[in-house]
Amino acid sequence: MKNISIILWIAILAGGNACNQPPAEPETVQLVHYVDPFIGTGFHGHTFPGPTRPHSMVQLSPDTHLMGWDASSGYHYEDTVIYAFSHTHLSGTGIGDLGDVALLPYSGQHGMKPVATFKKETEKASPGYYSVRLDNFGVKVELTSTDRVGFHKYTYDNHADRKVMLDLGHILQPNWGHKVTGNEYLLVNDSTIEGTIHTQGWAHQHAVSYRIAFSEPVETIYQYIDGKLRQDSLFLRMLSTDDLKFHYKFAEKNEPLYVKVALSPVDVEGAEMNMASELPHWDFEVTRYESEQIWNRQLNRIRIESEDPAILTNFYTALYHTMIAPYAYQDVDGRYIGMDKRIHLAERGYVNYSVFSLWDTFRALHPLMTIIRPHLARRWGEVLVQGDQEGTILPKWPLASNYTGCMVGYPAVSVLADLASKELINDRELKRWTEAAVHSSVYRPDLAEKFAGTREADLITLHPYYKDKYGYVPADSVPESVSWGLEMAYYDWCISVLATKAGLTETADEYREKGNYYKRYLDPETGLMRGVMGDGSFRTPFNPRYSAHMKSDYTEGNAFQWSLFVPHDMNLFIETIGGRAQLEARLDTLFTTSSRIDGEEASGDITGLIGQYAHGNEPSHHIAYLYNWTNSPWKGQEYIDYILREFYLPAPEGIIGNEDCGQMSAWYVMSALGFYQVCPGNPVYAIGRPIVDKATIPVEGGTFQLIVRNNSPENKYVKEVRLNGKKLNSLFFHHTEIVKGGKLEIEMDGTPHR
Q1: What distance separates the 2 farthest-apart alpha carbons in the chain?
Q2: Which of 47, 120, 469, 710 has the most CB within a 10 Å radius?
Q3: Among 414, 317, 331, 328, residue whose Cα is nearest residue 370
Q4: What are the tens digits of pLDDT across the range 456-473?
């Protein structure tokens, strides 16, 4: 029955992948050579360079940085040491976790914990492949992977001294509370190991099971337990909360050593099945080639043309980064751990995913996927609703089947509303999706009690309680009140979109009204969104430049950066503040005022400043497009051009802030194409400043083509836009115009146009 189950699920998963494919293309062009996985590994981009496949569980990469903010992905470009090669990572987050199942090849006597050194010029990375030479050990390391299996190739200079360390005490960011809570280890035979690592960190209760297979028998094993070399007989099976390190020595041989590491979120049997299914052979080059071709097919979902090689590199690297998270989190037989921490068997065609950085990615990554992978975008919506079914609340930032309370509000409802607005969910699902959204938008004392004492307790805050009781969040009761108030107003509007689609008129009316709650924070004196105290007065003193990370009225920002977040009600917002000229004046002030940030505890996320606009953090990402609601859209085109050219570079430091699981890159992809969805849930795109010369996107209706005429760095202004030959009278168009196929022609000019 086990083999039948495996074969069945291979067929199901293959079918699921097939349904996500765009219409057949006459040829696939080679685009992988434009991708540079080192982009974003410097500054505070927090990406990793190691191999993975699109949205895959195994993300195998070197760990060069274990502690501090820049250890969030385990790698920083400026480092010259490698502690291990581990199999799970986060791409571009501001918090670290994972770093599971860590291996390091070495030669010589280096005690319990050898550390490798390397020179940057020996590092190479491309989609699905990474290599480096460990100088002090004389070992060349090459890495590739399948969806659930990491594949290592070690070539030793010293053929007589070939060793590998398995570090079961290895984790990322131990100084931030991440710790190993247990290990189960079994020596299956002379070339196979399996076990389960239990950790606690950002994910409060995380377990990953593994199966490790060496290409040849182990000759000698050295065991270190809590730093001491064990002298007695070998442990065949053990359960331990101690720090475990195993060193394996292999016989003298003038051949590479190969290692396969399969992971499972469920159990060791799952890891064994995953390896047998995905990597039954030992051909490293075949696996590497398959990974390259898989990436190449995904990158072909958007074909662009540009005479600027930097644009090609930036674009396809950004597109690559949008396809790392979320990742599939289940075994080949369909089993996965749900948000209730129980084992589930996925229904036919369903794939479970984890690592949704929703507060970031609802803004551009999910809208992008509704264009280039609509079936996958819908699947993610189903996963979020399934998370509600399992855990009784929509996930906010799910990590390894754990709720985390990271960031603001209940952003999953934005993803659901956008899918509904683009007709990507079935009518029969709408009521259930709306119900999930509604009971995720209110204070949940039952879950506060259930999650007490765990990291999952951060999911339940009092912000929704105050919002529903008073119509605003009192600034003297909880921190980040303005950011929560503004975003909850948008999310509640999103719920009204879902309810309207579902025919739930009363719910739609109720939540549409709650969408107006943003008005309570709008201070007529300063023109900014300002904290409101429990007695109804605005907070004083008030400094719009002030930031205090997780302590002020604003999340990772200040009043300047947050006062233009009303994406769902722009027309009424503009009317309220005094008209289009007043909006333009406020935008001008934002972009031209001093970039000084006040406060000794100002958020480190405020990067990429133009005036007080901060492109390095997501609350600013829609703002340049708001000039389309003024009489001077050309000003937004100028700023978009600057951001595209100055804040995205083909270099390790080429991402101006945390990549945040694809959001920074999705902004680039959309903006380089010349349009952006300011308000997910309202399927309308604002036209900005395209920097590519041509783009072709396979869609449901055939092909959507973008042609940019008279394009150059100097010609940054939009002169005229034609959609299917018809001149547009405004700088907006609807999602349906993309998915049915057609042609968008944008003529550029060196002179501003209204």
Answers
A1: 82
A2: 47
A3: 414
A4: 999 999 999 999 999 999
